[in-house]
Amino acid sequence: MPRISDGEEEEEEKEDKGTLMSWDVSLPDELLQMVLSLLPIANIIKLGMVCKRWYEVVHSSPPLSWAMMAPQKPLFFRFCFHDCAFLGHLYDPCFVQWYNFDFPRLEKSIWRTSSSGGLVCLMNTNDGDRLLVGNPIKRDWKLLPRVPGGSSPQFNALALSFDLLTRDYTVVVAKCTELPGTPWKWHLSIHIYESTTKSWATLLAQDIEFWMGSNEAVICNGVLYYVIGPVQRPYLLAFDLAKPPSAIESLIQEAIPAPFDLACAGLINLSNKLVMVGRIDWPRKGVVIFELEDKTWREVAYTPIPSYMIFDSKNFISCGASDFLFMFSKGWPTLLTFDMRQKMWKWSCQLGLCPRLYTVPLQIRSLYYCGFCFEPRLDVSS
Q1: Fewer CB near the last or first residue (10 Å), C or N of the chain?
Q2: What's the rounded Cα separation, in Å, for the pair 226 and 219?
Q3: In this structure, is the dihedral angle defined by the CA atoms of residues 102, 56, 321 and 139, taken in order, positive or negative?
Q4: What pLDDT shows up at residue 359?
Q5: More confident residue, 325 or 42
């Protein structure tokens, strides 16, 4: 090919520059959102700051193509309080990194949580009748009507279930209150809120003896699982929300015992499979994970806990979503994670403490650490 002279080459470059156009300009918003949906959630949020159009595409309401988002690992949010100091951090297991995360509606007294399908329900432990439901990524929070059944029970369990097909959600609160003047006698009530009716209904309200409630409950496949039982070994009540029983005695008779004496037994719905996580001290000492199959617990994984870890029976907390579990202690700056698919344990990188908290004794400091996990979705709203 003959070489083009310099003058002709410069003229051709000018013509090309005049026809250059950004690739996203020719894409409609729905296709642009579809392209972005293939990325991890952290990258999507960052790309929303590129320009005004991309911000509107990322935060569009109603969503266009976010329902087709690639599967995302759940994120873990952790916060601590001391006087006026507040720290909020988000852990992304994909990038093994902590991020600063603003949570303006969070209060000191709110720490009991339940999450499902991108939504999170927060309960104010000082006022158990006050609940918030929302999407932490979109920061759209809704205050639910007050829960019936009294505001100061000894045990207050919270469970949330979100239907990705109908976009409706269900909140269940189980309250267990000790009856005055009658030792080992409790009043158990179960209340349900449906987003379709926007009101509460009481499914069960009865007295029980020799059985004590708990703060652990989860909804899995339309069934409410609630931890109840004697002081040491937990039992599991299976409560069909579509066909609630007329008497609590039938539920107690069919209660499923835990295989060991578990400390801080946590119930988690992982991809519509019921999982229990807890600490055991005998015959082994460590963290154990069970999965319920036909009313029988199957051990999935076990790991010993190093002696220097502060995973004591009072501070050990577990949560999870999709196929990923998070385990932590209120006074320890790292997370223990477990991937149910790959059967892999992993420690997170260390989260630094708030500078003001270094002067606080560890026993007090640990009281201010709480956290929960949720699925990052942009197509879900309360």
Answers
A1: N
A2: 9
A3: positive
A4: 45
A5: 325
